[in-house]
Amino acid sequence: MSMKEFNRNYRLGLSKNHLKYPAKDNFPLYTTHQNPVAKFLTVEMYERLFDKVTPNGVTLDKCIQPSVDYTGKICGLVAGDEESYETFKELFDAVIDEKHLGFGPNDKQPAPELEPENLTGGQLDAKYVKSCRVRTGRNVRGLCLPPAISRVERREVERILTESMAGLGGEFEGTYYPLSKMTPDEEKQLIEDHFLFQKPTGQLMVNSGSVRDWPDGRGIWHNKAKNFLVWVNEEDHCRLISMEQGGDMKATFARLCNAINEVARQMKEKGREFMHSDRLGYITTCPTNIGTGIRCSVHIQLHKLSKDPRFDEIVLALKLQKRGTAGEHTDAVDDVYDLSNSARLKKNEREFVQQLIDGVTKIIEMEKALEEGKSIDDLVAAIK
Ligand code: ADP
Ligand code: MG
């Protein structure tokens, strides 16, 4: 049996039983569920899609499982492979339109722009900006995504990526640390440097089965300077991260652009490429990350503005998102916030980084005004 057949059988084995019964009798019990799948998936749509199977053997039920097992606010939908977006288009398009605040079936993501030279500004005041980080997600074409991946395929993803990264030279020369073989000292160092990823506990990841077989096939790669990192087999096949202390967002983005291009080139030599669609941009496990997958963030200390009652609305008006010091679902420590672009789709990579630079520049202006005891009413009015 070929690996492709093995994987297809592996996935179909999980779901073929329900095909013996009428689709409508298998419809999930949605009650107080607050996710967009529960909102858009009707019995009729379910009947149209339930017996469809992607070339890799992914079914609709595989993709919607998180929407069934958690009633709170999550996206609820995951892709089991690149083709899930096509095979179950009717549902994916509805969820994408909702989560990206308007993206119709005829809308198209602009072409990628990993071009730092086209940025304006980008040296942010290091008195406020403690560190810069830009990350994106990528997946290897032809292999299933974490919700549907088999152990052998996951190890194959790890092999392809680590072999590609081993080919990197110059400032990108680095080492891969598989989670399963990490020494206590290595683990301690990576935690201290805020580089280590933990086993995901989010409802989407857990209920989609994406954390099966942990830590098999998972690991972290980083260069010597530890300013370019790659997470392997977490939520996507890889997350590529560029980060550094201080306020130089342009240099942070430039490093990410160079590194991605270089990794893609190494992969191409091995006959591999990243999943990408002309319409949706880069393909990711969670439909909320499609497009650029770019989250460009600063750690910024705002003693004054963070205490202003308008802080949240200012962040929102600048199309930014606020997180705590240790990332999503954490609180700010010593008034240090993680501010990043809130969208991933409908603009290219360079435009999202520009949006962050422009927004943070305005926020710093407000913080300075408040420090001098001035009113920020005019500055706030100007961004609305
Ligand atoms: P993502 O989903 O983009 O990886 P998370 O919110 O899950 O982001 O955070 C991942 C880790 O990255 C956390 O430890 C967080 O503190 C760190 N981080 C995010 N932005 C920055 C930044 N600008 N500087 C330093 N660390 C950061
Ligand atoms: Mg995260």
From TrEMBL:
Keyword annotations of the record: ATP-binding, Kinase, Nucleotide-binding, Transferase
Residues forming coiled coils: none
GO molecular function, one term: creatine kinase activity
Phosphagen kinase C-terminal domain boundaries: 128-370
GO biological process, alphabetically ordered: phosphocreatine biosynthetic process
Domain of life of the source: Eukaryota
Cellular component terms per the entry's GO annotation: extracellular space
Classification via InterPro entries: ATP-guanido_PTrfase, ATP-guanido_PTrfase_AS, ATP-guanido_PTrfase_cat, ATP-guanido_PTrfase_N, ATP-guanido_PTrfase_N_sf, Gln_synth/guanido_kin_cat_dom
One Pfam family linked to the record: ATP-gua_Ptrans
Sequence positions that bind ATP: 131-135, 194, 239, 295-299, 323-328
The Phosphagen kinase N-terminal domain, residue ranges: 18-101
Family membership noted in the UniProt record: Belongs to the ATP:guanido phosphotransferase family.
PANTHER family, sorted: ARGININE OR CREATINE KINASE, PHOSPHAGEN KINASE C-TERMINAL DOMAIN-CONTAINING PROTEIN
Protein name in the entry: Arginine kinase
